């Protein structure tokens, strides 16, 4: 299988570097709706020029519109999609179902790629997105090679997977940590990476969740997928050039060239790992340090005041950047190398294997013998990855036009469609009609700095008149000034709005029926039960079937564990179900059940809700990280009944990375709660079956605000954490009177919209 090497571009220079060093395709963002909102990203002019150049080289361009959009942003979405159509990009990478609906309906010539933000981690999820209309699915980074092979069996679906770059601790798309901690949502492209911070665990401070970088290297040759993706839209052109060059050489059969790997580590690199590609691995976090480390070149032999000695394993030179690990400091000590000696003599550079004396810019406390030393930047490497690029405006999007020129003895007129320009004159007979016609063609072929391309010209000159070149040029200029590209204006439809609810109905969600033993079911519209493969059927039978909805989890790495249980419950007549991820669309008989979407299938706009309706949902759940104003807007515009979560222990992230101190062979995989603290704020995490879910110690509660949001159903969740039946009853009584519980948090409900 021919593989596509897909490189990132945070700006146009990085894009040119990617193309020069062998990228088959480049992915990039516009100024809005990019999951890397803080990257420079592309203007329309830059995108147009870059796409034309890429297509000239036979390469592809993908635009990321991979954030979730609020109701008032849909008009801006159309503007961005119009840019994509005008510039003739090859595909959009998206997360929001509302974006998918609009692209599918109004921009059918643009391919849809499912972002890794859609959290596709099994074959069933990929199948579901293929059925929706996605031509490509970007897989979750957490997958093993065997899992990738299983998904790759799906016919007529392109798969894309990350092979190099930064890793998130959480499954992408279901992380709400930054949103709840800082009011900056990862799903909106504004993550502030609180997972990289230092946490206290068991009385000790560590970077418990700070991931190493992924570097699959030659393992990419084992991957049975089409597109191999490099992460890095926030990196510069030098980094993009080096990483693209490295993997281009691997794909071309040159193997892992050590020198090129060393170049990457000097430009930017955390320690490298394979994540779970070869199987479960616990050595994938960097607990002591954060950020760029560099290329390891040795350990300190001796510290003397402001001088250290080491045997360098790599050449170093003056003005190179050096970093040294210091225990207790979360970032290495870095400095520009100004003085070094070899055998007591000052030198400009030292070769690999030499014993060097390095002068520090200042005396550093806690610097000890044996500390690791890194080459963090190299002047040699900075000048190594030059690249060619076209001249400004050399490549621009061109729009085809057909011109009609009609010449009469007293008048010449030129037209494109309904636009017509005429010039009067006294035009004598031409000596040579063919020569005259050639002159007309050449004059109108000069499109200059316009975005026009003369596709066809028809000339009518029955009297065989001669027109001076100056008049032809003037006529052409006037005509072309009046022409703007004829782009169809999209006015997306707003789905029919449902009638607003008049009564307040309550839903309760649990993972254990013992939690609701003291609940008065007459006051409850519905109970949602989160099921698992170990659940006992007899426990389910204790609940009234007409009030019970069965819920599937967001993450399921082994769907076969659920299939027999699901089929048995369906056969028993259970028709009400809830899904929290797209894999549920594939395992459930959608046309035969009453289906609800949970809040991790994000509903921020009416187009997403309508898409959910198109997919078979009878109702949807509003996102817990949304803002108050958007929740109110959506409640007034939604084409489906809405569920508002009033109380929940919000899973801040869900991860396939283990934080237990034991090794895997000695692990029971049974539930274990672990406490964490960051900047005085307390969290608790549930570790179970090789999965970690993080929660705030304070529950999310918006009961006071909820009474002013006209939802169809109000929901209280008692899932994951241990609640007794009395606690559940008392909390629910408070909530149903729209009274907050004590010591709660409100997430983005209490924040200004612009922070989100």
Query: Shape from CA axes?
Result: flat
Helix fraction by DSSP (H/I, runs of at least 4): 10-25%
| Tally of alpha and pi helices | 19
Show unreliable segments: none
Please tell me the overall pLDDT: 95
Query: What topology, given as strand order, has the largest sheet?
Result: 1-2-3-4-5-6-7-11
Biggest β-sheet, characterized?
Answer: 8 strands, parallel, barrel
User: How far from one another are the termini?
Assistant: 42 Å
Percent strand: 25-35%
Radius of gyration: 31 Å
What class do helices, strands and sheet pairing give?
Answer: alpha/beta
**Strand tally, please?**
39
Structure explained in plain terms:
- It is a single chain.
- With 756 residues, the chain is α/β, with parallel strands linked by helices.
- The protein has an 8-stranded parallel β-barrel, surrounded by 5 helices. Strands 17-16-22-13-14-21-18-19 form an 8-stranded antiparallel beta sheet. It has an 8-stranded parallel barrel with strand order 27-28-29-30-31-32-33-39.
- Helix 16 (606-614) links the parallel strand 31 and strand 32 (617-621).
- The model has no long low-confidence stretch (mean pLDDT 95).
Summarize the structure.
This protein is of the alpha/beta class. It is 24% helix and 25% strand. Helix 1 runs parallel beside helix 2 and helix 8 (237-251) packs antiparallel against helix 9.
Helix-strand blueprint:
Blueprint: E1 4-9, H1 12-20, E2 25-29, H2 44-56, E3 60-65, H3 74-86, E4 91-94, H4 97-106, E5 111-114, H5 123-132, E6 136-138, H6 145-151, E7 158-165, H7 177-182, E8 199-201, E9 204-206, E10 213-215, E11 227-230, H8 237-251, H9 258-267, E12 272-273, E13 295-304, E14 307-311, E15 316-317, E16 321-324, E17 333-336, E18 340-342, E19 345-346, E20 349-350, E21 355-359, E22 372-377, H10 379-382, E23 399-408, E24 411-416, E25 419-424, H11 433-445, E26 452-460, H12 469-481, E27 505-510, E28 526-530, H13 537-541, E29 548-551, H14 560-571, E30 576-579, H15 583-587, E31 594-597, H16 606-614, E32 617-621, H17 628-637, E33 642-648, E34 653-655, E35 672-678, E36 681-688, E37 691-696, E38 700-701, H18 703-706, E39 713-718, H19 725-736
Helix pairs in contact: 1-2, 1-8, 4-16, 8-9, 11-12
């Amino acid at each position: 299988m021919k593989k596509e090497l897909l490189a990132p571009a945070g700006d146009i220079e990085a894009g040119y570097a990617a193309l020069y060093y062998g990228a088959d395709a480049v992915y990039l963002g516009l100024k809005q709706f990019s999951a890397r909102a803080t990257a420079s990203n592309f203007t329309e002019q830059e995108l147009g020029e870059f796409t034309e150049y890429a297509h000239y080289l036979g390469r592809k361009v993908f635009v990321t519109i991979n954030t979730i959009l609020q109701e008032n942003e849909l008009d801006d979405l159309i503007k961005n999609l119009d840019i994509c159509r005008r510039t003739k990009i090859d595909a959009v990478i998206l997360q929001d179902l509302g974006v998918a609906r609009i692209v599918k309906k109004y921009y059918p010539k643009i391919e849809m790629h499912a972002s890794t933000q859609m959290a596709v981690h099994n074959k069933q999820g990929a199948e579901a997105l293929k059925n929706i209309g996605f031509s490509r699915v970007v897989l979750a980074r957490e997958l093993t090679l065997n899992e990738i092979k299983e998904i790759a069996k799906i016919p007529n679906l392109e798969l894309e997977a990350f092979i190099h770059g930064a890793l998130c601790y959480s499954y992408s798309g279901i992380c709400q940590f930054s949103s709840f901690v800082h009011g900056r949502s990862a799903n909106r492209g504004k993550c502030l990476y609180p997972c990289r911070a230092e946490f206290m665990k068991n009385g000790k401070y560590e970077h418990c969740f700070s991931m190493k970088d992924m570097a699959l290297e030659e393992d990419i040759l084992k991957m049975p997928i089409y597109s191999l993706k490099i992460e890095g839209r926030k990196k510069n052109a030098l980094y993009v050039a080096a990483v693209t060059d490295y993997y281009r050489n691997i794909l071309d059969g040159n193997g892992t060239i050590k020198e090129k790997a060393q170049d990457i580590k000097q430009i930017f690199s955390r320690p490298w790992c394979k994540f779970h590609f070869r199987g479960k691995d616990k050595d994938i976090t960097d607990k002591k340090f954060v950020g760029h480390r560099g290329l390891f070149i040795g350990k300190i032999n001796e510290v003397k005041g402001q001088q250290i000695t080491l045997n360098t394993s790599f050449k170093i030179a003056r003005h190179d950047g050096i970093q040294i690990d210091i225990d207790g400091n979360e970032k290495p000590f870095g400095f520009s190398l100004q003085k070094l000696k070899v055998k007591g003599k000052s030198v400009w550079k030292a070769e690999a294997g030499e014993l060097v004396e390095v002068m520090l810019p200042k005396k550093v406390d806690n610097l000890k013998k044996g500390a690791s030393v890194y080459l963090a930047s190299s002047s040699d490497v900075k000048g190594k990855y030059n690249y060619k690029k076209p001249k400004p405006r050399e490549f621009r999007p061109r729009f085809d036009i057909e011109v009609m020129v009609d010449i009469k003895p007293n008048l010449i007129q030129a037209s494109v469609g309904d636009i017509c320009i005429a010039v009067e004159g006294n035009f004598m007979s031409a000596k040579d009609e063919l020569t005259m016609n050639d002159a007309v063609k050449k004059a109108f072929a000069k499109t200059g700095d316009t975005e026009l391309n003369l596709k066809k010209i028809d000339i009518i000159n029955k009297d065989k008149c001669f027109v001076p070149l100056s008049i032809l040029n003037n006529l052409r200029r006037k005509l072309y000034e009046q022409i703007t590209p004829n782009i169809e204006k999209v006015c997306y439809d707003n789905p029919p709005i449902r009638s607003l609810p008049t009564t307040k109905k309550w839903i309760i969600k649990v993972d254990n029926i013992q939690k609701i033993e003291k609940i008065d079911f007459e006051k409850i519209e519905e109970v949602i039960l989160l099921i698992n493969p170990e659940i006992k059927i007899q426990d389910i039978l204790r609940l009234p079937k007409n009030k019970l909805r069965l819920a599937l989890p967001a993450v399921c790495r082994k769907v076969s564990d659920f299939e027999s249980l699901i089929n048995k419950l369906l056969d028993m007549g259970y028709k009400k179900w809830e899904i929290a991820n797209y894999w549920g669309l594939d395992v459930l008989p959608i046309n035969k059940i009453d289906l609800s979407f949970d809040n991790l299938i994000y509903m921020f706009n009416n187009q997403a809700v309508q898409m959910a309706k198109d997919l078979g949902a009878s109702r949807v759940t509003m996102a817990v990280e949304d803002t108050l104003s958007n929740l109110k807007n959506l409640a007034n515009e939604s084409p489906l009944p809405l569920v508002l979560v009033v109380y929940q222990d919000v899973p801040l992230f869900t991860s396939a990375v283990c934080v237990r101190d034991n090794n895997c062979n000695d692990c029971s995989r049974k539930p274990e709660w672990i406490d964490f603290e960051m900047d005085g704020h307390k969290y608790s995490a549930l570790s179970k079956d090789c999965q970690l879910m993080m929660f705030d110690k304070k529950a999310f509660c918006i009961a006071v605000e909820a009474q002013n949001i006209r939802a169809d159903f109000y929901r209280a969740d008692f899932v994951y954490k241990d609640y007794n039946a009395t606690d559940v009853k008392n909390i629910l009584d408070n909530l149903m009177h729209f009274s907050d519980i004590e010591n709660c948090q409100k997430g983005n409900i209490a924040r200004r919209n612009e922070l989100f």
